[in-house]
Amino acid sequence: MSDSRARARLDTPRDVRRHLVRRPSYDADAFGVFAEQFARFMGTARFLLWMTVFVLVWITWNALAPSDLRFDPFPFIFLTLMLSLQASYAAPLILLAQNRQEQRDKVVAEQDRQANARAHADMEFLAREVASLRMSVGEVATRDFLRSELRGLVGDIEELTKARPEPSEEPRGS
What we know:
Helix 2 packs across helix 4 (77-139). The chain contains 5 helices and no strands. The chain is mainly α.
């Protein structure tokens, strides 16, 4: 009874199952790189050219070669089988390559989103700083303001000096 309760608990690990047949192991990353290289090659003009040459040679050989050397007579059933076999391997490899590219795109998109968020925060900070500088500069006397004030003071001094009688030059007593 305690053994069945122990198995039902989620915090108790289950017994390790022993497999009679050992599963083959592979490096998923290396296989993914292979799939991407294969998918890239299949998307090239070189692949299409070689595939076209292969099919043309196959059809030409089986149509024009002597009867005893032909290995795939007219309906070319074996050629169809070969092309189907190639397609059955190509499709999953291409999908694997696309999935890996999609994962990379997600990572890049997340990094771009984070960079955009940082740039946005930096722009907001700089906008606040520029606004505070504008407010500070608004309170600081500018060069033109100081010049106009000094001109006004010079004008006031000149008026005062004109309004005041100049002392007469009297000879000094001996």
